[in-house]
Every structure is written in structure tokens, then in C-alpha cells.
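Protocol step 6 of 9: fold each sequence in the batch and record its C-alpha cells directly after the sequence line. For illustration, a two-sequence batch is reproduced in full.

Sequence one:
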Amino acid sequence: MKSLNRKYSVNNFFSRSEKKLVLVSLFLVAVFSLNACSKANENSNEMKNPTEKGANNTESSTQKTMTMEEAKAKTINNMQDAFNGESNATARYAAFSKKANEEGFKEIALLFKAASLAESIHANNHKAVLEEMGVAVKPAVLDVKVQSTKENLEFAIKGETYEATTMYPNFLKDADAAGNQLALISLNYAYKTEKKHKVFYENALAALNNNTTNTLASTYFVCPTCGNTYETTAPKRCGISMTSGERFIKVNSL
């Protein structure tokens, strides 16, 4: 039997139409592969921490390193400002409570009364930290302006939002840099409580706008250690300071 020495090429296996189909398929595979690689690179960039994205990162480039002494001095100023702010909140919310009661909004009046008590606890905690640092505490400069209950709630929401999102987070960073544990504890107590107060006020404002203030809580419990505030019932232990619920101060009358 004779052997066949025939040379085989692509032309032997595929027709013209089949070759076109193969070329088109290869082209599409290449396009999809390039697209997949691009997506993978994008995902990889997204997974990086902000500080890994380069020197143009605003947050990392604007951070300033304080010396220990600078941090300590900044913390003293912060604690004094916090004491002044909480003292004002104490007086302001007490006045807002009275106004709400005069306008017939008993439930909102009780909320303001409970919040006033909580803010006084914060003020006393901040003052105690300053005294432990050997600092003479400056008397608070009170500035209380009373408007309608609706306006008072709006004002309170703005104040609590600022404290919870800007003031206390910044003060906590400075106290941490100063290594001041007492300041950290006192500031954290206030920070976590103000976040709850903000929600209480937002709910109260919504109820006022919807004429459903009678659905709001009529009893509050305030932690004597950190000012943490609960509606209706006290917990077994405070969610912030772990203080026993038996020690909580009940607010259900004006």
C-alpha cells in the first residue's frame, strides 16, 4: 500500500465561510477577554484602602500629627467647650420642655425634660475630667432662646446632629492622641447618647407635623452614669456604661 505524502493546511479542513466564522469567533473572544481584564483592574482598585490610592488622597494628605503636649492642650480646650455646650443644652432643653407643655405637647415636654437631665450628666462628667486634669473649669456662658415647639425641635435636631457627626468624633480623636482615658470615656458617653437624642427629636418632630404626638413615649429612663436615655422601660443594664437599670432615673411627670 502506498503511503500518502500529502501536506495538509487550513484550506484542507475549512471552507471559506467556515474560516470567516472562526476568525469572527476569535475576535469576539479577544474583546471579551480584554473587557474582563479591565473589570478585574477596576475591582482591584475599589478593594484598596483609601490611603493606598496615592498622595492625592485628601483625607490622608490633610491629616496633621500633633505632639503629645499639643494633643493635651487641645483636649483641655475641647472638654471646656463640651462642658459649655452641655450646660447650655441642659438649660435650653429645660426651657423647651416648659414651652412644649404650655403648647399642650406633654409627650414632647417629657422628652425635653429627660434630655435636659441627660445633658446635665454629660456636663458634670466633662467637668469632672477637667478637674482631674487639674484645670480650673470656666463657668458656662448660657445662651437660651425659646421659640415654638416645632422650631425648638428643629433647633435641637441640628445641635444633636452636629455633636454626633462632627464635634464629638473630632474631640474623641484628640483625646485619643493625648492618651486621656477619662476624657475618652466622658466624650464617648455623650457621643453615643446624642445619637439617640437626635432620633428621638426627629420622631417627635414627625409626630408633631402629623398631629400624632399622643403616640410618643410618656415615660423615659436616664442612666445616671452616662446619660443614656431609654423610652418606656429601663434595660437590665445600660447599653453604654453597663450601669444597672435599677439605678436609672425615671422621668414621667413634669
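Sequence two, same batch, same settings:
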Amino acid sequence: MKKTIQRVLAAVILFAMILSGGFSEVGKVHAEKQQGTTKRAIYVVFDNSGSMYGDGNKAWSQATYAMEVFAAMMNYESGDVMKVFPMHDITTDGNTGSATKSSMEIRGKDDIAQIHNMYTPKPGGTPYTQVNNAAGELTKLLNAGSVDEGWLVVLTDGDFDNDIPASGLKADLEGKAAANENLYVQYLAIGTDVENIPEGNADKGLYAQKAGNTSEVVNELAEISNRIFQEK
């Protein structure tokens, strides 16, 4: 437990240092390797809609570095896997890339650079489609016994505007967590424009938080990281 907390604090302190610099420089997040035995999969749905890149909006940077912190804390040698599902197709070699992809897999520290180098040629709205896709793939991974625990993490700065579940956001996310007893859902609303934030229900594996500014993002990231990487 102590090692886990130290590891989270180290990552979050570096994350805070990067934030205090205004995201002006590229920084690599380093953290100790996860020492536990639980094999984890973290599937992140990344909101790369147009609003994330608006003037003065730091949400895209905050979400990017949050993903880098998660990626740096994974124990890839023990079978951990992280996959990012952007809402709109991306390139992973900056704005000079031509080949786009709908998701990217992080299987080692060398892959973390892909997260920072993500570029969205055609950002649009905030569709729910990738939440469904990520949850479906994560459920199959857990059902196959490839990992012990799975986390579906949703990072967004706005309300969904397409492919919205008829049952409502909270009910749908609870249903996704119920698809496997070791599947959990973490929803993080970034910024002040998100109105439809589902109420968390830990008993059903759903956690939901909101971070309105940079300091709140750091605080929420520490709590989320402790939740995900703490050995149960």
C-alpha cells in the first residue's frame, strides 16, 4: 500500500510540475513500475472534439497528461495493457502524419510518446460511439481471462451529443460495469461546460468526478490513480 501511494504521489507531483509550466514543454512522465500482481487493462475514451482545442482551453493538455500518467504507472512486463479510444480518428506522429487510426495500444514505455504526439485532423462533436467500442473490447478481454481487472476511463470536457444511450448515461455506464465483475468505469469531466455528469455508484463499479481547473485535475487524478492502482 505504501509503495502504491508513493508511486502515485511521485507521478502526480511531476504532473503538477508540468501543469505549472503551462504545458509549454514536452515532458515524459516517469513512475516506478507497478509492483503488484494484478494484471490491469485501462481503456481510455479520449474526448478530442473541437471544444477541447478552443482558445484558452487546457482540457486537451490536461487529458493528455492524465493519460501519460496512467501509461507510466502500468506494469507492462506483467501483462498490463492500455488502449486509447479517441472520439475522432488521430495520427500518432503529430500533424505531419497521414495515416489515421481509431484507437492506439500502449504496451510499453516506448509507446507512451504516441499519447503526446496524438493529432486530430478533423475534430468534431462528442459522440458516445467510442465508449461503446471500448467497453465492448474491454469486456471481451476480461471474459477471455487475459487480464484480472479492467478500467473503462472516460475523459471529456462536454456532454455527449450523438449516439447517446436511450437508458441514460448513468444507467448505461452502470450496465457496462456490470458486464464483468472485474470491470470498473471511471468518468472524469474536465472543465466547466459539462452538465450531464453521472452520479457515481461504487457498489456498481461506477465512479464519477469533475475537475473544473488545473489544481482540481491534479487532485482528482491522485484519487483516481490510487483507486486504479491500489492492490485489492
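Proceed to step 7 once all outputs are recorded. Observation for sequence two: The radius of gyration is 16 Å.
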